[in-house]
Amino acid sequence: MAEIQVENPMPDSLAPLRLPDDRQLVLRVMPMPADANGNGDIFGGWIMAQVDIAGAVLPARIAKGRIVTVAVNEFIFKQPVSISDLLSFYAKVERIGKTSVTVNVEVYAERNPANLQVVKVTEANLTYVAIDKDGKPRLIPTT
Length: 143
Ligand SMILES: CC(C)(COP(=O)(O)OP(=O)(O)OC[C@H]1O[C@@H](n2cnc3c(N)ncnc32)[C@H](O)[C@@H]1OP(=O)(O)O)[C@@H](O)C(=O)NCCC(=O)NCCS
What we know:
The chain is 13% helix and 38% strand.
């Protein structure tokens, strides 16, 4: 995975940062003005929806069929997101159960292209369940 050098002073959240290489890029999106809240930052609910979409990518592949989100176990907004940030969603499978798959999603914002910064803005942990045609849990295929 490409390394992006980040020049930035003090705050920990803006410290030089490498995009994760133990995770898969599952979604990249740029929020639009319609996604902003009254302060001009991006609405947290919009970010949650994108994380849910991104988090489902690996479980859907593993489950080889229909899945639903059963739980958002943890969701942390570490830094605000701005309108022109390019957001990249990186996912890692944490656990494959009998019928469920749990993933961790990290979201990074690339901002200020003239002096590029990469900031981790959000981290979440979600569980998806494989379901059958009746909406009941089904076993995760082993092959
Ligand atoms: C997901 C659903 C099918 C699970 O049905 P259920 O009868 O409760 O299923 P179970 O209790 O057998 O649990 C199924 C799996 O989910 C896991 N699970 C259930 N509740 C959980 C929770 N709160 N957190 C984490 N995992 C959970 C169980 O551990 C189990 O995993 P495993 O088989 O890998 O061990 C059902 O709850 C449902 O349809 N929920 C609505 C889903 C939905 O609409 N999502 C979108 C909302 S925006």
